[in-house]
Amino acid sequence: MKNIDSEDLGAAGCRIEWADPKKIRARRVVKRSNARVTFKYPGFKAGRMMQAESPLERDAFRLLDVDPFVSAFTEQPACLIFRLDGKVRMHFPDLYVETLDGGIFQEVKCDEEMEDPYTKLRADYLANVLPIIGYRYELISESEICREPRLSNVTFLLKYGRKPVDLIDQERIRRTLTDAGDVSWGDILGGCFGDKGVHM
């Protein structure tokens, strides 16, 4: 890596190099030469096939796709360049998430990796400096991603959420919800909105 002066990293001591829009990602995930299994995921919010390095990342994509507070997200979004312990370092976070509260870089780790000293040190550093330039940084654990029954419910919802519902059915269901107030998921599965109710 070329020498980077402190001035090149700005007041925060961290610089973001975003992925080329034509390439989508700052780093390729799915390659023929990969030694480990990678995955493709049909992104609901992204409207394209997304690339995951592990089943855990794929499950993180699923959670973000159904989260109403997340407007958009993308994988391998950027390279974070920062100085830590006197060395200039590079980090490719797994995700960039746009929320109602702003942008968050997320790193997905299995529970064992969460205990790695450098992973913790880097996460603490980035969580402190990125807000200076308007972003947040989070470590997302395997335990959080795989929490049940949430993950099973999310997988179920995505199965149905990809099927289109015409405007007439949408309006009928909207009126039913307005009149009824609260409707349980059990009622919906039982057919209170008709055979297309679960797709809403």
| DSSP, total strands | 9
Strand adjacency order, main sheet: 4-7-8-9
Question: How would the global form be characterised?
Answer: elongated
In round numbers, the mean pLDDT is 86
Element order: H for helix, E for strand: EEEHEEEEEHEHHHH
| Largest sheet report | 4 strands, mixed
Q: Provide the helix percentage.
A: 25-40%
Total count of helical runs of at least 4 residues: 6
Strand content: 25-35%
Low-confidence stretches: 1-7
Overall structural class, as computed from helix and strand content, comes to alpha+beta
Measure the end-to-end span: 50 Å
Task: Using the CA coordinates, give the radius of gyration.
Answer: 20 Å
Fold blueprint:
Blueprint (H helix, E strand, L loop, with lengths): L13 E5 L20 E5 L4 E5 L2 H12 L3 E6 L2 E7 L2 E5 L3 E5 L2 E8 L7 H13 L5 E7 H4 L4 H12 L5 H14 L4 H5 L11
Parallel strand pairs: 8-9
Antiparallel strand pairs: 1-5, 2-3, 4-7, 5-6, 7-8
